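I had to read the description of the data format several times before I understood it. In essence, backbone conformation is discretised, so a fold becomes a row of integers matching the chain in length. I therefore recommend that a typical entry be quoted early in the introduction. For illustration, here is how one protein appears when written out as sequence plus structure tokens.

***
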Amino acid sequence: MTSTETASQPSSKTDNSGYVDWGFAKATGRRLVQAGPQVTPGEAAEVVTSLRRAAERSRGPVAETARMHSPADGSAVLIVDRPGWIDANVDSLRSMLEPVIAAMLAKRKISVPGSNLVMEVGGKVTGAEVGALTAFLASKILGQYDLAPDGTPRLLLVAPNVLHTETELGVDPADFRLWICLHEETHRVQFTAVPWLRQHVIDSARQLSLDLAPDPEQLGDKIWQLAHNLPDALRSGGNGLTDIFATREQRAEIAKVTAIMSLLEGHADVVMDDVGPAIVPSVEHIRSKFQQRREDITGIDKLLRRLLGLEAKMRQYRDGAVFVRAVTDKVGTDGFNAVWTSPETLPLPEEIENPATWVQRVHG
């Protein structure tokens, strides 16, 4: 299935790192990604139009329920296919990581003979890894608010994935598309109604990436850790590979970023569920079928999700929603919205697990 729109935002910056061949990453992702549902051009156009209308329809109810209002000139939704999603996310990943790579290069004391050739080959290998990862994810993601570091953030909806999922679940297409848009629109409102939030998340992710990047002399130890701890990582379903490589201090920083993501995902789920019954007639049926789909993943797909930490993301929806509902029950929606005041009012990891401690710290 192909959309008439494109999500790619070519970076204006030159790649001065050589550590990742970003063009090769896109090409690899496009080559490996599974084809979407087979539809006629007319059917594809209908899905695109329907999703755009659903996104527009979701704006008012989300803003009213969340009591958060984004600027009137907010960017329009972009409907993409799987290759378009790959292009958009490789561009965003490049913008996110290039400052990290530059900081790593600045730490190098000497130039190694033949290092340019080594970097060129390594860039192809790393680009292939990025491409394979985005190819896997491109068939899973229904929607996303793309933060687009150094670019223009926008709401992406992946049309073939929405069509495939609604068909697989056997749910009403119009209701399902609107239900998905309620969740993703909440993310758009979070980042556009709270001016400091987008840059805070970007900066936190960049710093964490820099902290987690191993020095060359540590590479042998990291490989040994991978071999030694991989079985436990596959069994536990924690944060995937980061659980293997991270130190105790780094895990504490990961927990802080995870707390923010739990808040964002949980809040989007709560708003989606609160709005749903009023405008999505079959919302209970959709939620039941969708939750069952999350729990039915098996085989190699389950292993990959564990390695990539995607099972931990599923817990973010659950834990974050429990936090949002507990706080709202205690201090109301306006009291909960104090969470958006500043980075200091975001919940700490221990507060996600014990919402009363956040209420006490912020509201006294």
Summary: The beta strands are 78-80, 143-146, 154-158. The chain has a mean pLDDT of 81. The chain has two domains: 1-194, 214-364.
